[in-house]
## 1
Amino acid sequence: MDIAFLNLEDTAQADAYRALTREVFGLDLSAWLTGGFWRGGPRILGLMEGGRLAASLTIADMTLVLRGRARPAAQIGTVQVAPAFRGRGLGTKLLARAMDLCPPDVFLFARAPLAAFYGRLGFQGAVQSVMRAPLPPPAGKPVPITAPQLYGKLDPARCVESGVLDVRREGSFYGANLVLGRRHDLYWLPAGCAAVAREEGGELHVFDLLAQSPVPWETVGAQLAALGGREAVFHFTPDRWLSEYAVADLWRGERLFTRGGFLRGLPEFCYPALGRV
């Protein structure tokens, strides 16, 4: 058994990682791996067994703000073990090694039934909150576009505003989903920015916002309001968009798990470092 970081510039290693992710999650990472999103981005830790890539995970190094103080942290993601190698504790060994390579403060998102698995390595479930803001009166009309059209309008390497990740360094988390074809609710706004948003049950769920220069939320919100909904539900901490928002009920779905000195909830736990809470 050998645990080491993968080099995605190595064709064999990139192919092995792509094949493992396709087998475990059913995702084709070809566009993601060749689109330039990984330059300086997450590190991929792999576990080799019998000459095969048996398991892997990603480590995204970042700076988080807790109670106004910046501190190094890491997000663990895409934890995967090939079906043929399950039941042997390889995932636990890989995750334990990752903890040795990360700063003390680590977080990840996972399904609630995995709490016991991650709990063995010191992770605890944290409270997730929904952040809401009323929508201004509609002004302007969003235009549905495709991911290729988006990257014809915005250069991910030059984007300075994103609700989820610093796209200057790592690319947008939801941008990855768009490239992979998992989301189709992408819009171009007259304000010169893009949004991943969807109206459901009178609520406008805003998953991500991308722009190459700052745009006030009042402008973005008024243009998104044409999609419907009484209020916006942010799936990220929207501080960069200078919005007044309120923390409301708990979010359903994947659960946030933290390890180290993290506070046990949002908005004190600010992801990523947005400057102010």
## 2
Amino acid sequence: MIHVLGKPECPFCWKVRLALLEAGLDYESLPVDPATPEGRKIIARHSPQGTVPVMTHGDVALWESSIMVEYVADLSSSLRPTTPAERARARTTQYYSDTVVGPSLRKVVFEKRGKPEGDWNTERIREGTEGWLGCQAHLEKLLDGRAFFAGDGFSAAECALIPRFGLAEHYGVGVTAKFPGLVRWFAAMKTRPSYAATRPGTFFEPDIAPTSAGEKRPFRGIMPPT
């Protein structure tokens, strides 16, 4: 059995869950918080970086999410475009998601998550939102009206990007209408069974954050399923 250790809302962990489900592989997701002493102890057994996700499969232990996606692709013969050029495109897009999209959105998510609005650093949120808009412009051009980012099917590119778009929407900075290709792409990705099955449990209920006056109110974002 494959086990994935990590935090449900971590986009790197979500990426791996998507890959496993899209590949049709059975796995067990084990919530572990590396910010706690017990969590750090568990993660340190497998990850020299002390980060999540961690994937174990028998005697195999992996601690880098992109390598996990490659491993899943090898096990299942899926998630891979047919040509070398498109496979390189999928890897490059995954790298862009991890190293460019992620840092921009992190500024927004980390400021809004669990904080009253009065405590938000609005300048940091503005910087993150502007960076995210620049990412959308690049990704719109890269997608170029196609159904998938690399080749004719779901690949590592989708595994990496879907969690970023999901978190962006959940924290009130979803994809903008000026990028219709991305709007269509993300709408289609959300209809896939893997999206509902792997998205964080917090997405089924609106996050509640107190305002500066202490009033509780929901964030804008994904609404509870009906």
## 3
Amino acid sequence: MASGEGTGDSNAAGAGMEVPEVELCLDLTSCQLHDLSEVEIPPTLEELDLTANRLTAVDPRIGHLPRLRKLSFRQNLLDDDAVAPLFTWDAIAGLQEIVLRDNKLIKIPDASIFKGLLVFDVSFNELSSLNGLSKVSSTVKELYFSKNEVPKMEELEHFHALELLELGSNRLRVMENLETLTNLQELWLGRNRIRTINLCGLKSIKKISLQSNRLTSMNGLQVPCRTFTSSLTFC
């Protein structure tokens, strides 16, 4: 009898207790934060969105989020030195999506620590080349480099899983080094200086954007047995 009463009391107590909710996502978009000193960062986070703030440094607490999979610093004030620590923290090596769009980067950070990366976005920065891209994991499916100063398509050969490549608004003159991107489905190259179309090796291409280039020929658009959508300006 005593044993039965004890079990009943335990169940009643358990039913009255509130189980704390695990925080998986933290969205601090457009909070105009200069730093995160007054922000609590739960250690259980899987997604952290810091878009549209005034951050000039990466809070070291982010390096202690082992479950983190998506991280966005879009539209901040981060330069190369500011983001460097982010790419050395082993605890967040499981990141799958990194967005550094619209900051002050001059070079591609060494992202070799992220072995399972799927999305890498460094658009709207001040990159003068794609040097360093060879260290980005071959697991990546989406790469974004629009609105930089990139003159050449290079260090792309190992991205066999890549499905989307965005290189619009750069200084590209030649479509090259795409032969191994056999899974590429979308290619965005608008607002460059490209004259000739070359889709050699792009067996899975479905959409290509080449508007506002300097095309002199449409011959490269012949892709046998493949239907795709094109967006072109021919001049």
## 4
Amino acid sequence: MKKALFLFLGIFCGLYANSLQEAIEKAAPYDTLKLSAGSYRGNIVITKPLTIIGNSSVIVGENKGSVITIKSDHVILENLTIQNSGQQKTSLDSGVKLLKSSYIQIKGCNFEDVLYGINIELSHHIQIKNNTIRSIDSLSLPQKGNGIKIWYSHHIFLSDNKTLHVKNNAISFSHHITLKNNHFKNTMFALYFENSKNISVERNIFQYNSSAIVSMGTYDLKIIKNDILSSTGAAGIGIVLGNGRKIMINGNRIRYNAKAFYIDSQFKEQGMQRFITKNEIAYNKEAFHFHQAIKNNTIKYNNIYGNISDVVKDTPNYLTANNSVKYNYWDQYGGFDKDGDGVGDMPYKVYQYSDKLWHFNNKIKFFFASPALSIINFLSKIAPFVPPNLLLEDEKPYMNLIKF
């Protein structure tokens, strides 16, 4: 039977003697330690099933190593402030480090001045809920660690967390990961997926990140009903898709980015891979930025408006194939609807005219909308010296904004 062990340690006792580690060692498996308000010395190691619940309780690390290391299954950490890890990336100094552990819950905790927030290695069935994670304030963003790092770990559920001023949140070689109702702000890559599968990203908020979501080699990725806003810098990107398969992007609001989408389609890629539907893609510099080929994309029922460029391709090799693009609203479409069915009479075709100059050389975009470039673009359309490249064609563009 589980027991409850009440640990009432004052602030002085916690600071000057490692009473928390001693209590952990004396506790029986599945005991509950309830901490009173105060500070407790960190760099603790948990090697048995245990629950630790705080009440204005601060676990203070030694500015080296990890503040809490878990090497057991069935551990719960709740309502703790965890601070002052080391700064060594080689040892992945963390607020909480999980090593080959399963059925772990970390909820309601506040991480401050930790290099890595929660580092999950070779661990499974983990719940991370309602935590706030902030890296070491004195470090510049490239020097910080990840807020949440998941490596070779499966069946992870993350909800209602905030990660602020961390470098990335990285998920590598892991599967069955759910991220829901989280807030990612002021990072480099808010979410970075690498060679992972069965990923669900739903109803999260992304703000002021260099890139919101970066997916490399991910299989079965669902990005649903997120707010992806205000990626920072001249190259700030909402969603980066590279080398993945079976990717569904539905119902998101993607605004105020340099690039809403950056898609790297491989020439050898086979079959429909990306399904982009019912999104609001608005007020970005570029709506869709393609690298190499434009192929294997389903793009339907999106509202695409207020962007400087709808489609950009940055490599000279020309290939557009196997796309299903229809029933989108494009504010740059200039066609008519004579029969009044709400669908344009002519397809919306995005060609590459003089803009191919700055598609391949970003420095030229400084002259975007200048009289010289406008004249070149106009002449290219009415009397092209060489045939323009057709980048993308919407067979049946909507005339008005779509109501979802």
